[in-house]
Amino acid sequence: xxxxxxxxxxxxxxxxxxxxxxxxxxxxxxxxxxxxxxxxxxxxxxxxxxxxxxxxxxxxxxxxxxxxxxxxxxxxxxxxxxxxxxxxxxxxxxxxxxxxxxx
Length: 103
Known about the structure:
- This protein has one domain.
- Helices cover 19% and strands 41% of the residues.
- It has one helix at residues 16-35; strands at residues 2-3, 41-48, 51-59, 69-80, 87-91, 97-102.
- A hairpin with a 6-residue loop joins strand 4 and strand 5.
- The protein is globular.
């Protein structure tokens, strides 16, 4: 497992304190993903207080965990669903911080 983030160079959407709180759970989820089989990608919702983030775990080889895998954290934003008109949270795919990689 390789650490990819730098506390001194974080994107604006997350603070050092928020990242510190999220890291143990993110690492646990990533280790479970790497040891497992199945989908090549998963998004997992993570919270710090009332702030939501999406953890993306990804297998670049397509699901067999034989190549590089990574875990990145994305901010989310509130929106309204077009089909139901209800509040919804979406991933902001324009920003992220890669936390860990394997291989």
